[in-house]
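Now for today's protein:

——
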Amino acid sequence: MICCVRSLGLAGIAGCMVMAECFLSNGLPAFEIVGLPDAAVKESRERVRAAAKSSGFKFPVSRITVNLAPAGVRKTGTMYDLPILLGLLSASRLVKPPTQDQAFLGELSLEGNLRPVSGVLPMALAARDAGIRTLFVPAENAAEATLARGPEVIPVTSVLQLAAHLNGDRLIPPEPLWEPQAGGGVDLDFQEVKGQENVKRALEIAAAGGHNVLLVGPPGSGKSMLSKRLPSILPDMTWEESLEVSKVYSVLGLLTKQQPLIQKRPFRSPHHTVSAAGLAGGGSNPRPGEISMAHQGVLFLDELPEFKKDTLDIMRQPLEDGKVTISRANGAVTYPAEFMLVCAMNPCKCGWYGDPSDRCICSQAAVETYQSRISGPLLDRIDLIVDVPALQYEDLRRKETAETSADIRQRVNAARQRQHRRFQELNIHCNARMSSAQTQKFCTLSEACSQLMKAAFQSMNLTARSYDRILRVARTIADLDDCTEIQPNHVAEAIQYRATALGG
């Protein structure tokens, strides 16, 4: 007797359809799972057997073969427990066989209850695209599955409950669509930051165009404080962006029943001891890293020179492509990595190089050694390099009310709307994501602007990449000023963000 049950699996952060083919035959009792299962899938044999017996079903005494098709694709995870058990019960005629427009996934406890699994959101999206009309998932994952806005989602708590539903004895009501809630936690506000108006201006430009930033200054100057407030001026995520980010967090098992959707732009701040795999993703069964968790948000690297050089250099290609590909012997997976890189560092080991107080105790050789920990190719991918001076007593005592994040955010949103209109026919959403060809098209310069750029190119030894990045920053400054054409003052301001000892 053969019974086929449709299920789903994961390939990176994308869902894929899987068919659980259950075959009962004569012969010595045995239970085999084929179709490139990993250890977690093979262990489902014991969970399925215990769950069936605990639920009061007679486990078939026969030779059992389960094939997870397509057999050439590796299967990982525990989501196949439920479809395997359902296939066995249907093949034994204890439960009505499911239809081909139904799909099932879930991990079984030994008592026959369903436990939540990771990656339900991308699997639900794959079910929608495959024409699945009804999706059965663990009750804890049901709200997340409804975000696909496709199949009807049935929340299942136990095997007995599912059997009663399929046999028509007691139907399970479908899960209502989860709707985003307004409000949320209070963001840190730029109003709380004393002074540093030049840095706030640079961060406003970065937020408006999605640019990468490096803050260089002595200890206590407010680099971390300013960086942590950057999300408060970033534009709200669209529904599509929220789904993209939530897929990453879903695969990592970080979504909850109460909050199945990431609505705020991520802010990730890994410690400088993070490994290359922790930053970019990897492992024997690859998982997303910090740069993918920062997708559509901010990746903040504090004390940048303390990170391992090879770890930092891993980011070079993702910064260009907006994605990271992890290759293994059994295949490759691609994760999204479209993020703003915000870094902070001291100018030297003691932190006071270049300060007017003359407190620096480092030799020139020590300063150069410290700064050389940041490779030139990585530095070339940073759009704005900003000097953060030490705060003066007068700045701390100043009683004037600083500009709020809400005020800055209005200007950022207006600039992003101009970019949206500019790129509405293209697959980009901000100036920082323009290609070289797009940069030449949308960042045309007048004769006066060209003369400025020529002088900067020759005096600062710019590369072609840094030349393009200056143009993109100038385009963003023009957008903030609501100017159709880039003006000389926009170019001059963009150039100054590379006129530093680190960037020059």
Notes: DSSP finds 21 helices and 18 strands in the chain. The chain has three domains: 2-166, 190-410, 434-504.
